[in-house]
Sequence to fold (386 residues):
Amino acid sequence: MSLEQHAFLARDSVPSVADWQAAITELGFDLEIYPELKPFEHSGGVPCKLGSIESGFEIYYEPADELLTTYPHAKEPAAHRDYAISFRYFGDLADLASVLIAAAALAKSFHAVVYDPQDDVTYTVGDLVGEARQALAQIRRSRPVNVRQWQKLARQHLLPHLPELTVSRRWLFYAPIGWQVRGFAFERSGSGSRSFTIEAGVVPLYVPQSVGGTFRARLGWLARKRADEWWDLGQQDASAIFADIMKRIRRDGLPYLARRATVEAMTKIKRHQIILLSAQSYEYQAMLCGGILLDHASVVEREWRRFTSYHQRYATPDSPEWSVRLYEATEQIHRLYHDNPVAAREEIARWRIARAQELGLAGFLADEPADLRSTARPRLWWFGRR
Fold:
């Protein structure tokens, strides 16, 4: 269903795009109208940007006579105005807000009278501004939380209590980064609500997988509730939400990460939480590669046996491509380790950089992965042997 509004004004008062944009800015709204809009010529869709939201509406320039014949109740308030800028939109809140703001600027700065034929009313500038603000408030309440909002909230509510961590992308993590990213990941609901959850997680950078594979568990599961814990910024106060999150991070999240603080610790944990469903082979692969880094031959062979046994049990001609590639990459690094352990560690060191780049965290890499400094064996850093 389309909705309309009509702004009646004198033809010689029709603004240029620059003047219209200046009037919008003067009202205090963050709406950017289409800079290529051509007054008197444009007919049809106009893209706009409402803050960070892409929006738009249809716009039509036309003499006022025909519209005033169609809507006689508008004749008296629109007296002496011989031209009209008509808006049409389709019920989206962002589009509605954009129309209200654009029309309010016409009313305030160019003496337009704005008429709504659906309700058969004319609007004052105050009416239009008030309804625009209501629409924007409803948008804020209904929009899913994005990464930028998460970062702002994490910096405000979490970082003051966790000075050893930093924020980038959707991660709150320990920096600088050695061989693995350890921290807390923001995950929003896919339902369009403003709900989100937090996961404690470790991403090994010493595996050939891309960013999809990691070990992590939601804070609700770490509390042994065996259930997800979600917070809703549309229903709850942000300060109360993040106070609860901080409590859970201290009680459950930080101990979880502490137990996985080093590559060696990762190879000793009997059971990891795995994000890839039906992909226990990923756990075996990560622990095998950790064994190569540490030059723990017994760990390498133990995980190779577990890895191949799992693969043989579940591999079929219809196995997905990622599963096939996982097996091939693991087989290759296992063979390389037997042929040339130093070359295997060199390959893993290259993976470290590639994985960090895929996560967008390469700028946080430490020159020397600190969690191997205590290993009394020949070791290889990503920039060469020490």
Observations:
- The longest strand covers residues 53-63.
- Residues 3-142 form one domain.
- Confidence is low (pLDDT under 50) at residues 373-386.
